[in-house]
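Researcher: Go.
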Amino acid sequence: MSRTHQPDQAEFRAILPEEIVWKPFPAFPSGARLAVVVGHPTQAGPYVVRVKVPGGTKLMPHKHPEDRIYTVMSGVFYIGLGDTFDGDKVNAYPPGSVIVLPGDTWHFHWAKSGEYVTQVTAIGPLGLEYHDLRDDPRHQQSNVAGGPVSQRTAH
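Model: Structure:
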């Protein structure tokens, strides 16, 4: 009886840091980048992505429907819980830290002390909903283009 493997996990392979392809992500502020490492975040199933956020950038209060495990790869990852951004309520996590974030938990990030890179492991599909649509870059782009606005988009 053959075993069915997870997406992108049927053969041995290694992904080296220089092979990671960083791309803009419509739900992120300008300058922030996302790289798909393993899996297909738009589909049901496990995935691994990396997120790179430049110094000073804030990701305003948002939530994800999926449970997530963050591993801090570099820099210091500042995260706070709640549906209102409060810089006094962020906790700092250095490289090597692992943060478990249950799905549907309002939270916010801040690259307070410089660029950080986190690795996110979860079961897709990936979703991101901002508490205030005015903080959602997808909403801002839609208004400029006069197109529809979606509060939740799976990417």
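Model: Confidence is low (pLDDT under 50) at residues 142-155.
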